[in-house]
Amino acid sequence: MVHSKTESQARRRILDTARELFYRNGYRATGINEIIQKSGVAKATFYAHFPSKESLAYAYVESMNREELRLMEEGMEKFSGPYEKLIGLIEFLIPWSRERDYRGCAYLNISSEITDHANPVRRESKDHYLAVRRLVGRLMQELKKAKGASWKNRDTEQAADDYMLIFSGALAMAQVYHNPEPFRAAIEAAKRLLR
């Protein structure tokens, strides 16, 4: 038991180090030796957990995906209805981006460095956006019910796709400007979409 707990702690340190370095420096610019050195594990320990840099990248994206989706779902609980939740999802990005030296969306960043669309790391990054899109689609359907006659002819799938463009566009532009202002503009665009 102690042995597996130690392994689990080492794995966590490796993942945390990779998360920091991949995000700050980029996937390609981060070497395995740097991760080993900064995480304080032996080379054999690293390879026991991750046989390759790509396997580490996959674990990094997968763990981040689980954690961020959990945080999103928890964050949505404080809002009363679907409209408030959809606006709140973008509002959440402002303090979230300030908590770190915002260098853009980690999923978009790593996807831009892995050009093979069939690569598991890239597929897991895409899965994150698909999961967010499912959440947004569900909220759009709830909003249509709540709006009644005023949204009778509204295509909730199209509205969800439009929302995702606003959401992901704000993530990209906030990186370009290194400023949370695109998130504020996205909130206003989302309000117009949801009228």
Would you mind describing this structure in some detail?
The protein is mostly helical and 195 residues long. The protein has two domains: 1-51, Arc Repressor Mutant, subunit A (Orthogonal Bundle), CATH 1.10.10.60; 53-194, Tetracycline Repressor, domain 2 (Orthogonal Bundle). Helices cover 77% and strands 0% of the residues. The protein is elongated. The N and C termini lie far apart (56 Å).
- Kindly state the number of beta strands: 0
CATH hierarchy class name of the largest domain: Mainly Alpha
Q: What's the main sheet like?
A: none
Rg value: 19 Å
What percentage of the residues does DSSP assign to strands (E)?
Answer: under 5%
The CATH homologous superfamily of the largest domain corresponds to: Tetracycline Repressor, domain 2
According to CATH, the fold-level topology of the largest domain is Tetracycline Repressor, domain 2
Helix content: over 70%
N-to-C CA distance: 56 Å
Low-confidence stretches: none
- Multimeric state: single chain
- Based on CA inertia axes, which overall geometry fits? elongated
CATH architecture assignment of the largest domain: Orthogonal Bundle
Number of domains: 2
Question: What's the helix-strand series?
Answer: HHHHHHHHHH
Number of helical segments? 10
Mean pLDDT: 92
